[in-house]
Amino acid sequence: MFLNCHTYHSLRYGTISVEELVQQASEHRLKTLALTDINTVTGIYTFYKLCLENNIKPIVGVEIRVKNELYYICLAKNAKGIAEVNKMLTAYNCEGIEIPKENPSLINTWIIYPMHNIPEKLSDHEFIGIRENELNLLIQPKLKSLIPKMVILHPVTFKQDDKNENYELHQLLRAIDYNSLITRLDKKDYCRDNEYFINKKKLLDKYRDYPEIIANTAWVVERCSFDFDTRTTKNKKHYTKSKEEDFLLLKKLAYEGLNRRYPDDDGRARARIDKELAVVNHLNFCAYFLITWDIVQYSNSIGFMHVGRGSGANSIVSYCIGITDICPLELDLYFERFLNLNRKTPPDFDLDWSWKNRDIILQYIFDKYGKDHVAFCGTNVEFRGRSRFRELGKAFGLPKEELDNLTTKPREEHDKNTVVKKIHSFETMLENFPNQRSMHSCGILISEEPITNYSALEMPPKGFPIVQFDMNVAENIGLEKFDILSQRGLGTIKDTVKLIEEKRGITIDIQDTTISKNEARCNQYLSIGKTIGCFYIESPAMRGLLRRLKCDNYKVLVAASSIIRPGVAQSGMMREYIFRHNHPDQFDYFHEVFKKELGETYGIMVYQEDVIKIALHFGGISAENGDFLRRAMSGKGRSLDLLQKLKNDFFDSCQKKGHPEQLTKEVYRQIESFAGYSFCKAHSASYAVESYQSLYLKAYYPIEFMVSAINNGGGFYRTEVYIHEAKMSGATIHLPCVNLSESYTTLYDKNVYLGLMHIEKMEIFLKHLIPEERKNNGEYTSLEDFFKRIPIGIEALQTLIFVGAFRFTGRQKHELLIEARFLLGKNHHRNKTKSLFDEPQKDYQLPVIHKNAFEDAFDEIEILGFPVSHSIFDLLKTKYRGHVMVKDLLDYHKKEVKMLAYLISRKHVPIESGSMYFGTWIDAEGQYFDTAHFPDSLTRFPFREGGIYLLLGIVEVDYHFPTVTITKMAKMPLIADPRYTMDEDKSQEVAKSLREDVSLTFRKPYPQEHQIGLPRNKMTGRY
């Protein structure tokens, strides 16, 4: 009898989760229940599953509202009904087609109108919902005649409670939705105060005088049905016309790739292909492979570069057909980690493109497979902690100052007044509430049937439609996503190759991975951590790891790419791997199988594939069951009963192989310890290939590489660091110039001209228009010429003057500023077109002003964020540059050093005794080093934003990598800004604006060596 229930997926309206809704219905012993969220089907599949588990008949539908006006409630008669509603909502959301206020063409749907929207004519499938407090209206002749078309309408929106807090939460959500004070809401803006579950008998008793209405309601309920098969795959079934044709095409492509990838195959590659093809075909995943191949083929045809990574790189078929570039034979990658007969879910390919190219690939997918069959996964964006406080505070009418206190101060420091206490209470209630739907970052769905059979679509600002549920729901109902990702690293690589060809005439096939896997210079750069700008290996932590390992080859880089992952490092594998790598003679392999199968990683299960290896070669269970065991230990939706069965099978198999029980227990303990933390080797290998590609370009073409990194938005660090790297590589850095700069940074021989894009306070259209106008009509000959051709205001023009963009005129900044003011005053209404009758500006002689040598540097910091004409060290008050430079640190192990350094970045890391920071700095010679700051030091000598610091600390050399543990530090003052000699406060502003990169991590502290428990001695004898 409850035909109109809302959950919190009725955004900023409902206050009940789907789970709570079904639980309440179960507590009221209901046998049927309808979910009708407002304009969305987000929750219907979770609702369907939970209802069946609770022996409740699920009825699904949607409450249709337009601009918060209730039109009608739709209940699906069957699966076709929900598809009809989805299609209508999609047309409204994506194409702006109005939703009819009455008599919609929904023949497989029951329509229930509210009393205020009764149409002139009711179709057979249309009814009127009447609330209990509206029954007294039935004395009216017109309404009385409509009783045969009436059903019970008792909406459910919130959970009843003694203090009425849930109802007030609903009102607050409505205020948030309207961006209004809760006190200013009108009654029509929120629901009635009785919209909660009541006893079914009590509800029916209210309608006892109208048995026909009760009967109508029961009749509608009986004729609603929503049976949904979650076991079958909903993805596009065939790439060609049939499963058989798909298999033949995939086999043909794989064999063609075999000849290309393995021209001297000894039979191993072909056997592996045949084995994989049999599994892929058996599991009906040929179409998934072929669709992925098709997307990659299109990308290749237009000259785009991609990276295929994830567990898909474990497949030799994906390698041969060009989806990935990782040879699974070379790295001993197990196909079973990717796909096996125990794994019924589709394979998982992660495909990366440059951030500049991804939208073109997406458009191809939508065009090729049809907008009716393609959509992004959605995602629910919840009310975040700070936003909960801010939104609730606004609804209660708090002033800005109090709102700022709520959102910036810890909870315990908030005021204790009555309003704030209420806000605290409701803030807790709002946890996990969705606030809006958004687009999944990469998940694309390609369905066999129209995708509106499963969901209405919405159109976020990005411009590609999304379904109304997230990736987890999609997977649960049989819609598997294709991951189409973007990253800046690929853009940097592609742009570097293009720039090298343009400037040097050298063509590089960077996708030929053989050119960058064993280059002496690349290996040298790796071993000393000279990798800033390179994909995945430029962070301070990664550069430190590379130095600790003296990494000088591809396979060690693959391992490093895995053990740097937080979970892997947290398990203790990173510390143990570093020890064994540097001391190969100070440990024994735990067992001969570990030496044979894990010799490359010194007997440590670094990768997920290693877990499978040990399960197979030590335990004697199949590779498929080995992966099943790994997934069960990782908590991938497996039951404890299944895990116990797999454990029993492992121990039984080990016993049959003659392993002592104590030995088996220790091996199982190690598998159990590492299975949840280990990283996919194929994923690491894919990362390592791209890292090497970028490193190759950095090693041999460093200036071109850094210019491209700058133009692609850099990576881990801010732009200033990449400009510094270019300078350290031999480039001469020039400020933006209206005659030589583009919107992006450009290169002329070794001269790097910063792009107009780096001038933060200038409008984007000007950054593109200035070089475009110059290209079309020639260089600017003067400030006046520029002013006549570019529609620019005085603030932007002054910014260009201050940053030196008109230095080609040879005139001082103060002259140009006076001229700019004169030009603007003379031309309030000016037409930006060339005229035959333009008269030149009269040339006035102004006095030469002798300015301070550092004025320009302060202009640059203010406009760009960093100085170009001078080093930041030149601006110090002191001439002191430190007693020790970075190049000498290795000689100061356990010794105290005093250094002067510029802060690049710092990372917050929790430890058992509180919080610490790792800092990254450059010295006056431009070399990088790292520091550690523990709680006792930070308490007395905290960071004070960006700038140059005097550091005192003890050098600790850990496996070739020096870190300075700071005992004292102080921020060093810059000279007073010479532009404001008469204003002391203003003269310090720029110094306070110096930037730093701050990152946070909330991982648990890494374990100490004694906590890892990984034996370094061989276990012998029988136990």
From TrEMBL:
Pfam families attached to this UniProt entry: DNA_pol3_alpha, DNA_pol3_finger, HHH_6, PHP
Residue span, Polymerase/histidinol phosphatase N-terminal domain: 1-68
Enzyme class label: transferase
SMART domains documented for this protein: POLIIIAc
PANTHER family reported for this sequence: DNA POLYMERASE III SUBUNIT ALPHA (PTHR32294)
Record organism: Epilithonimonas bovis DSM 19482
Protein name: DNA-directed DNA polymerase
Alphabetized GO MF terms: 3'-5' exonuclease activity; DNA-directed DNA polymerase activity
Keyword Signal: no
